[in-house]
Fold this sequence. Notes:
Elements: H1 2-33, H2 38-72
Amino acid sequence: MLMKELILDTDIQIDEISIAQTQFNRVRDSIMEVEMPLHLHFKSIHSLNLLMSVSKEIEEHGELIEALYCLKN
């Protein structure tokens, strides 16, 4: 009986993985349909994250950055 339950659980997990893979493929395909190629899409997200990070640092340490810049020049 235990073996049948394990097989049933395994079959259910395989079905769930198959459904997840299908959903992933749909999302991937819809992203690829956008004018922007996928690698550029992720580069732009990375650039936006980097810009937000730098903006946060400037907001938190702006006076220090300005003072160091003035000392350098």
